[in-house]
Amino acid sequence: MTAATGWPTGATTAAFSLALVVSALAGIRVGRILDRRGPRAVMTVGSVLGVVSLLIVAAAPNVLVFVAGWSLAGLAMATTFYQPAFAALTRWWAPDHVRALTVVTLAGGLASTVFAPLTAALADHLSWRHTYLVLAGILAAVTIPAHALALRAPWPDAPTSPAHGSPGAAEIGRSRPLLLLAAAFTLSGFAMYAVVIALVPLLLERGYTTSQAAWALGIGGAGQTLGRTLYAALTRGTTATARTTLLIALGALTTAAFAAVPGPYALLIAVSVVAGMVRGNLTLLQATAITDRWGTNHYGRLSGLLAAPATTAAALAPFAGAALAVSLVLQRCLF
Description:
It contains 16 helices and no strands. Helix 6 (97-108) packs antiparallel against helix 15. It is mainly alpha-helical and 335 residues long.
């Protein structure tokens, strides 16, 4: 993009990060709407917004329009990504929602496995603008009819049980357990995604080809899919607190492994798969964190509150990770 347009690299990267921030903030309001009305209208409109946003990005004549397109994409993310899907599955399938969540995330885990190499292949043969148009066409053909036609089941009332019905959403949202849980997910997500986003330049710096780097990134998606098949067994053998601690600790270890393992390529692929397995389980951990502790009532609103800081941290991760890398390299050179 920068080569074709002359736009600053920082501006194009910031546009994507802005989309994540918009998604985080909008997700709180979207969660409340989902609790009341269900997912069909929200996710169908979000799919349309996603297509429109990609068309705006593809046609953007300047940076301002490009940023506006990505801001709209952020709203589409809040209404079509995992958070609204998790809210729908949790309400429809509780108390067997873990299985439903696992099935959906198994497909979602293949996103990078399929689309990282596909996008790289498209970019090799098309301009970046035409690449966006192709991706917008895929999005329109798959997600708009799927959400409009398939999400037609009646939206059940929120359950109210003695165990989970007492505290209100506002009280839980201000509670110490939820705030600490949000802090744990935020710090963990920040560290892991700063590394994942930097994986391609890291491997290029180590002498690997662009294709090898893209496959190393994409294969992590396959690891996510594999890891999610194990989550149900993990829930049967651990408490919510124990598996939260275990998975965050494993996230730290796999993050460090990317720095400690320079090669060979097969070993880096193995690290990427294991790191993907951990990320896949963390996705389901976050999806079930509310129901494990407070039940399914107010799930959309509370999950939006829980996800907002973590999503914002993911948006800041590329900049902060790059700044840390520069600072650490300078210190190494000095000392």
